[in-house]
C-alpha cells in the first residue's frame, strides 16, 4: 500500500539510482529494494534514507559484487555449508545427496536478510537484534576507514576498548581471535548462523520429506509467518559457539599433525 503512492515509489527509484551511480563497482542488484524500503518508510527525508541505505550497503555490498560468473553471496553460501556440516552433518549429507550442496536455496535469505521470509515489522525486529549482537564500538572508524583492519590493529583496539562494549556475537569472535593463531580465523556475519539455525529447526522435516530441491525450497518457504526472530537469534548463538570450538581445535591440532607427519 505504501508504494501505491507515486511519490514513495519515486523515492525508492531515486535512492537506488543514485546508489548505482555512487557505488559504480557494485551498481544495482536485485534485492537492494528490499533492503532500501525500510529506510524510506521510516525516514521522511530522502537524503537521510539514502545515507542510511548507503551505510547498510557497506556491510552487505560484498554480497552483490559480481565477478565473472559468480556473485559475492556465494562465499557466504559456502560458509553456510561448512557450518551446517559441523552442527548437523546428517542434514548436510542429505542436502548434498539432493544436489543442494551449493546451498543456493538459502540465496535469498542471505541477500535480503529475511525480508521476504518475515513481515515488515518482524524483519526490522530481527535486524535490530542482529546488529546489536554484532555491535562493534569501532564501527564508525571502520566505515570511514574503508576495508577491514589487520589483526594487529584489532588487538590494539581490543585492549583499548572494554570487551563488554561489543555485542555478544562480536565479543565471542574477538575472544576467539585472541585465542587462535592470528589470521587463521575469518569471522562470519551472524546472518550465516541465522540461516543455519533455520535449517537446524527444519532438519527433521528436511530429512524425512525432502526428495528433491523443490521440496527443500517449499519447506523453507513455510517459515514465512512462523519464524520467531528471538528464538532464531538464540539458536544462532548456540551454533556459533559450537562452530568456534571446532575452529579452535582445528587451529591447534592441524599444525601438530603436519609437524608429526613431516
Explain this structure:
The chain has helices at 6-22, 32-42, 46-64, 73-87, 89-97, 107-112, 120-133, 139-145, 151-160, 168-179, 190-201, 203-209, 213-221, 229-261, and strands spanning 66-67, 70-71. By secondary structure, it is mainly alpha-helical. The protein has a two-stranded antiparallel sheet with strand order 1-2. It is globular, with a radius of gyration of 20 Å. Mean pLDDT is 85; it is low at 252-262.
List the helices and strands and how they pair.
Layout lengths: L5 H17 L9 H11 L3 H19 L1 E2 L2 E2 L1 H15 L1 H9 L9 H6 L7 H14 L5 H7 L5 H10 L7 H12 L10 H12 L1 H7 L3 H9 L7 H33 L1
Antiparallel strand pairs: 1-2
Shape summary? globular
User: Which percent band covers the strand fraction?
Assistant: under 5%
Mean pLDDT: 85
Given as residue ranges, the uncertain stretches (5+ residues, pLDDT < 50) are 252-262
Helix share of residues? 55-70%
Q: N- to C-terminal separation?
A: 67 Å
Radius of gyration from the alpha-carbon trace, in angstroms:
20 Å
- What structural category characterises the helix and strand content? mainly alpha
**Helix segment count?**
14
The main pleated sheet reads as: 2 strands, antiparallel
N-to-C series of helices and strands: HHHEEHHHHHHHHHHH
How many beta-strand runs? 2
Major sheet: order of its strands?
Answer: 1-2
Provide a brief overview of the structure.
The protein is mostly helical and 262 residues long. The chain has helices at 6-22, 32-42, 46-64, 73-87, 89-97, 107-112, 120-133, 139-145, 151-160, 168-179, 190-201, 203-209, 213-221, 229-261, and strands spanning 66-67, 70-71. β1 (66-67) and β2 form a beta hairpin.
Amino acid at each position: 500500500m505504501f508504494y501505491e503512492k507515486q511519490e514513495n515509489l519515486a523515492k525508492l527509484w531515486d535512492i537506488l539510482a543514485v546508489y548505482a551511480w555512487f557505488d559504480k563497482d557494485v551498481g544495482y542488484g536485485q534485492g537492494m529494494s528490499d533492503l532500501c524500503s525500510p529506510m524510506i518508510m521510516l525516514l521522511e527525508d530522502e537524503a537521510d534514507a539514502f545515507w542510511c541505505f548507503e551505510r547498510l550497503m557497506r556491510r552487505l555490498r560484498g554480497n552483490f559484487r559480481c565477478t565473472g560468473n559468480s556473485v559475492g553471496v556465494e562465499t557466504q553460501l559456502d560458509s553456510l555449508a561448512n557450518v551446517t556440516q559441523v552442527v548437523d552433518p546428517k542434514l548436510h549429507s542429505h542436502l548434498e545427496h539432493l544436489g543442494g550442496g551449493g546451498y543456493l536455496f538459502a540465496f535469498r535469505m542471505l541477500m535480503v536478510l529475511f525480508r521476504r521470509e518475515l513481515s515488515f515489522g518482524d524483519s526490522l525486529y530481527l535486524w535490530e537484534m542482529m546488529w546489536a549482537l554484532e555491535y562493534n564500538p569501532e564501527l564508525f572508524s571502520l566505515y570511514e576507514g574503508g576495508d577491514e583492519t589487520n589483526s594487529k590493529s584489532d588487538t590494539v583496539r581490543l585492549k583499548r576498548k572494554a570487551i563488554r562494549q561489543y555485542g555478544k556475537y562480536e565479543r565471542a569472535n574477538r575472544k576467539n581471535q585472541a585465542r587462535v593463531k592470528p589470521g587463521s580465523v575469518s569471522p562470519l556475519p551472524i546472518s550465516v548462523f541465522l540461516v543455519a539455525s533455520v535449517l537446524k529447526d527444519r532438519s527433521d522435516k528436511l530429512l524425512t520429506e525432502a526428495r528433491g530441491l523443490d521440496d527443500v525450497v517449499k519447506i523453507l518457504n513455510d517459515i514465512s509467518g512462523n519464524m520467531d526472530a528471538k528464538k532464531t537469534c538464540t539458536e544462532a548463538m548456540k551454533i556459533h559457539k559450537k562452530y568456534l570450538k571446532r575452529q579452535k581445535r582445528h587451529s591447534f591440532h592441524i599444525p601438530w599433525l603436519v609437524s608429526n607427519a613431516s
